[in-house]
TrEMBL record:
Name under which the protein is recorded: Glutamate dehydrogenase/leucine dehydrogenase
Keyword Oxidoreductase: yes
Organism, scientific name: Tumebacillus permanentifrigoris
Family membership: Belongs to the Glu/Leu/Phe/Val dehydrogenases family.
Molecular function GO labels: nucleotide binding; oxidoreductase activity, acting on the CH-NH2 group of donors, NAD or NADP as acceptor
Binding site for NAD(+): G180, V181, G182, K183, V184, G185
Amino acid sequence: MGIFDEMAKYGHEQLHFFQHRGTKLKAIVAIHNTVMGPALGGCRMRPYETEEDALFDVLRLSRGMTYKCGVADVDNGGGKSVLIGDPNADKTPEMFRAFGRYVEGLGGRFYTGTDMGTTPQDFVHSQRESTRFVGLPLEYGGSGNTAIPTALGVFQGIRATARELWGHEDLAGKTFAIQGVGKVGALVVEHLVHAGARVYITDVYQPFLDTLVDTTPKANMLGVVAPTEIYGLDVDMFIPCALGAILNDETIPQLMCKAIVGSANNQLLDMEKHGAQLHDLGILYAPDYLVNAGGLIQVADEMKGYVPERVLAKTNSIYQMLLQIYKLSKEQNIPTWLAADRLVEARIETIKDFKSVRI
Ligand code: NAD
């Protein structure tokens, strides 16, 4: 693999490889774009089969973070880190301290926190060596559970989508199919039920389903369905809060919903192909990196000194931003994901321009 070619393809600024043999740390940090501010993105730990797989993942994910930061209007750019190893077998406190020292050595160009395979507790070790870790537990000065603002952002996305579809945000009696009722999905269900909506739910973990069935008023609970049945339900909106790549050749033909608004990352298997298919079918797709940005907004806020009211205000603004994207999509007759990308690219260009002013 030509590393510089790969960086040029995705538009990256910088790539770092770290190795510490004593702690078996093998890490890659990719910094995609710092026009808007220091790069920010989670740290993923996976037993990647090859170094190329790890590199591909970190390049793609860090680019995605630039768009997510841009659309959420936080003062950060895109970055990401990956640790090569098995999160269930290879973690040690010393590995995370070593990682902390390397990240600190980047001099504030990159901030990181949890992602798949890592937990806030892992970075309690890292923060002993570095001030560049966010999403820490409350008792370590962090902002706590990011699922709370993430679910609120998804709910604001649902309200904006309702306005776009029906001209109002009244969700009473409207129907929703929620895929995945883990940390975010369960809270989205709470918001929906509070608004008088009716829900179908699915998950692969039975205890989460049982809890929700027990705690949701019967009038609002339409039922639990098998994971494969969730796509074909005749509902107003489909709410994916589990896995990525679930909008694909197999699932899109099954959809009966009017809109898709969920927290899962990278829902479109192929952005161009499947984004265009949804557009042609007239199914409104709320770009995932906008509606799931609440968690990012919260951890970015930690860097400024966490103010809950500021996080709430910014997360609520996902509503307006999504309406703007729907407007752009209609005016230009382009899929919503492309409208979102264009909006972010224009924003980055403007910021780049005024940042050229010497102060
Ligand atoms: P989670 O692990 O708590 O919940 C995911 C749920 O999906 C689990 O209950 C799991 O059993 C279920 N699931 C897995 N495979 C499934 C399948 N095939 N069908 C149905 N359910 C299935 O994760 P979370 O924190 O709630 O995040 C949900 C999604 O939102 C993830 O894609 C995550 O990347 C994304 N996201 C989360 C945050 C956050 O702040 N937590 C922020 C941005 C994006």
